[in-house]
Amino acid sequence: MDLSIIIINFNTRELTLNCIRSVKKSVLEGIYEVIIVDNASSDNSVPFIQAEFGAEITLIANTDNKGFSKANNQGMGMARGRYILLLNSDTIVQPDTLQTMLQFMDANPKIGAAGCKVVLPDGSLDKACRRGFPTPSASFYYAFGLSKLFPNNPRFNQYQLGYLDPDQDYPVDCLVGAFMMVRKEAIDQVGMLDEDFFMYGEDIDWCYRIKEAGWQIHYYPYTQITHYKGASSRRKPFKIIYEFHRAMVLFHKKHFSKKYPALVNGLVYTGIVVKLGLSLLMNRFGSVR
Predict the structure, then answer these.
(1) What is the DSSP letter of 77?
(2) If DSSP codes are grouped into helix, strand and coil, which group holds residue 226?
(3) Other C-beta atoms within 10 Å of 235: how many?
(4) Of 1.10.340.30, 3.30.470.30, 3.90.550.10, 3.40.630.30, which CATH number belongs to 3-130+166-227?
(5) Chain mean pLDDT for the chain
(6) Is-contact 159 142, C-beta < 8 A?
(7) Is 275 or 206 the better-scoring residue by pLDDT?
């Protein structure tokens, strides 16, 4: 088995069906499998997916919402591929995407994980598809808008890497969990996703561990997918906003807190709490995109 594609579904029935359909249209020389993990959807996703794809896929139907990390780990536990692809349910892959990325990974054995170009429905870049790690300085420059004021300055664009050409390939710190192809040997070495992260931050944490183990992370934009990001709702449930900010705390505490003095750590945690409060207020009045 060359590739195991893992897709998590939670009340995104039509998006998931379209995603699987796009995978099935792939022009791929290798052998692949599709593993769908449903997190107790209430929109009849499971019978619809079963009815259309049946034995063509492996379907795990959870009785409760286990979150993104745990559900992906369930899929990885069954995966047989040389590579594991985390693929969001709200994405559409191009016919050449899987083959292009497989060939790239096979040709570069030192690369532990790679991602393609990810674009939004309007054709703009999903900036999360190639990022630097959210160090305190990178987070500060991003949060206070310095990265937008000085888009071509590497110092102020450590996180979103806006100074780099999105149409060129290069090593990066981290990719986005919407499309991340990971070598099985790297997973065997560093472990699967950290289940302390419920639905955000697990991709950055995974990339951090993969890089720490000596593997390269690479952005390869010569094929692309479309990411229907935030397509489900304008106003976000409290849990989504809370988990997004909780992931920031978890990541900093796990990887950076011992590297910085108490004052810096305190400022980071205070900043996250303030940002959480502002996000809740903006969401309450319908201002969140």
Answers:
(1) H
(2) strand
(3) 11
(4) 3.90.550.10
(5) 94
(6) yes
(7) 206
Please measure the distance between the N-terminal and C-terminal CA atoms of the chain and give it in whole angstroms. Answer: 40
Residue with tokens 């790690």: 133
Cβ burial, residue 288 (10 Å; 0-12/13-18/19+): middle
Is the Cβ–Cβ distance between 174 and 218 less than 8 Å?
no
Residues constituting the chain: 289
Domain definitions of the chain by residue range: 3-130+166-227, 238-284
Write the single-letter amino acid at 123.
G
Q: What are phi and psi of 111, to 5 degrees?
A: -85, 120
Q: Say what the pLDDT of residue 157 is.
A: 95
pTM confidence score? 0.93
Q: Helices 67-78 and 202-212, interaxial angle, to 10°?
A: 50
Mean pLDDT over 4-14 rounds to 97
- The DSSP 8-state label assigned to residue 247 in this structure reads H
pLDDT higher than threshold 60 for residue 189? yes
Rounded CA-CA distance 121/64 in Å is: 31
Asked if 37 contacts 7 with a C-beta cutoff of 8 angstroms, the reply is: yes
